[in-house]
Amino acid sequence: MNMREFSGVVDLSSHTLRYYEKIGLLKNVQRNASGHRVYTQKDLDWVSFIKRLKETGMPLENILQYAALREKGVTTTSQRQQLLEQHQQRLKIHIQQQQQHLLALEEKIHLYKDGKVR
């Protein structure tokens, strides 16, 4: 896949993809004879995972840390697992807080519907 196609599939701008390369988050992107980037399924899987981490609130610094460990190979699996478990715990707390906010909002809306708030 070329840059335009890949950008569309992963729903990230070409600027963002180049930035990810610049900071070392996206490495070893293949290039064709003309020097244009050629993305593979491996790149797609990795960028999809990066997006999931970002969308769940993992800071870019932690994603970079995870990527650096990933690049070192299987000797870092326990460290990567620990990073993901820490993020999982933060995410669970965030979801719980959001559920509490939603409940409070629903209660307030219910008061309006019942005419108890003016």
Number of helices: 5
What is the ordering of alpha helices and beta strands? HHEEHHH
| End-to-end Cα distance | 58 Å
Oligomer: single chain
Quantity of strands, as a count: 2
Structural class by SSE content = mainly alpha
CATH topology of the domain at 1-55: Multidrug-efflux Transporter Regulator, Chain: A, Domain 2
Question: What does the radius of gyration come to?
Answer: 20 Å
The pLDDT mean sits at 96
The CATH architecture assignment of the domain at 1-55 turns out to be Orthogonal Bundle
Shape: elongated
Strand ordering within the main sheet = 1-2
Helicity range: 55-70%
Low-confidence spans: pLDDT under 50, at least 5 residues? none
Determine and state the CATH class of the domain at 1-55: Mainly Alpha
Largest sheet at a glance? 2 strands, antiparallel
Strand content: under 5%
GO molecular function: DNA binding; DNA-binding transcription factor activity
Keywords: DNA-binding
Domain HTH merR-type: 1-69
Protein name: MerR family transcriptional regulator
